[in-house]
TrEMBL record:
The keyword Glycoprotein does not apply. GO terms for cellular component: plasma membrane. Residues 41-257 form the Histidine kinase domain. It catalyses: ATP + protein L-histidine = ADP + protein N-phospho-L-histidine. Coiled coil: none annotated. Keywords: Kinase, Membrane, Phosphoprotein, Transferase, Transmembrane, Transmembrane helix, Two-component regulatory system. This is Sensor-like histidine kinase SenX3. One of its GO terms (biological process) is cellular response to phosphate starvation. The keyword Membrane applies. Its main location: membrane. One of its GO terms (molecular function) is phosphoprotein phosphatase activity. It comes from Agromyces flavus.
Length: 270
């Protein structure tokens, strides 16, 4: 009887081992596909600006004695080069995030500081578009993480909220504690996202409306970077949206410890 039980256990373990191996192989295969897709996408994304740069350089050569034309071509050349630089930067950032041990989130960070830095970086763009960005922090919270990466993640959400708002729109950034997590939400009253696109906006290079997104200088990598960063920190990111009404993106991160209540800075300390 005991021998029988042992045999069954060994058989079970064997099955589990085989399943594990199979699982590993499927995972390797999936990663391979993802990698292939990624490279195909980058090549495609880089082709257009590279072709433009080359055409513009040629046009410049021909327009040598027409200063107005030269200025126009030079201006566009500079814009296309910037776009190339932007895409390349994001690709590097994303591959860094996807490297398995890219991140050791072990520094205690103040969420308010992360949000303030991300909003600050968007001030000029917001002002140029007449968009008002307001921060409302209900509680102060701390998380463990990589500050630079988290600032980039929040920055990307705020930048999108401004980019997809109409002139004079409003963007609200909120911080609140919910259970053992802190939620950072970025809400706009902009164009919104159709239901069928909602699941896909976090995919690399996905853009709802290619032409419109290109006008905003987007690469389709911003939200993918947000997703990877947040997942690397043990959190997640969600989106709510209604076309024509606006969108709210919410990042959830595990709290480092119990939240610190907001204190009135003007009250005398005891
Ligand atoms: P991009 O650099 O093109 O903005 P993202 O990955 O940041 O790329 O976003 C992917 C797509 O999701 C965008 O092209 C846009 O269509 C849509 N999107 C992102 N944020 C918003 C928003 N706040 N409002 C409406 N659409 C958005």
């Amino acid at each position: 009887d005991a021998t029988m039980r042992l045999a069954v256990r060994v058989a079970r373990l064997g099955t589990r081992f085989v399943l594990l191996l199979a699982d590993d192989r499927t995972e390797a295969h999936r990663l391979d596909e993802v990698r292939r897709d990624f490279i195909a996408n980058i090549s495609h994304e880089l082709k257009t600006p590279i072709a433009s740069v080359s055409l513009l350089a040629e046009a410049l050569d021909h327009a040598a004695d027409e200063p107005e034309q030269v200025r126009r071509f030079a201006h566009r050349l500079s814009a296309e080069s910037k776009r190339l630089g932007h895409i390349t930067g994001e690709v590097i950032e994303l591959s860094r995030l996807q490297a398995r041990d890219a991140l050791r989130p072990d520094v205690l960070l103040d969420v308010d500081r992360i949000v303030a830095a991300a909003v600050d970086q968007n001030r000029v763009v917001a002002a140029a578009k007449g968009v008002e960005v307001r921060v409302r922090a209900k509680s102060r919270a701390e998380v463990y993480g990589d500050e630079a990466l988290l600032v980039v993640a929040v920055h990307n959400l705020v930048a999108n909220a401004i980019a997809y708002s109409s002139e004079g729109g409003r963007v609200g950034v909120g911080v609140r504690v919910d259970g053992d997590a802190v939620e950072i939400s970025v809400a706009d009253q902009g164009i919104g996202i159709a239901t069928e696109d909602l699941d896909r906006v976090f995919e690399r290079f996905y853009r709802v409306d290619q032409a419109r997104s290109r006008n905003t200088g987007g690469s389709g990598l911003g939200l993918s970077i947000v997703k990877h960063t947040v997942q690397n920190h043990g959190g997640d990111v969600r989106v709510w949206s209604r076309p024509g009404k606006g969108s709210t993106f919410t990042i959830r991160l595990p709290l480092a410890e119990r939240p610190v209540p907001v204190v009135d800075a003007t009250a005398p300390a005891d």
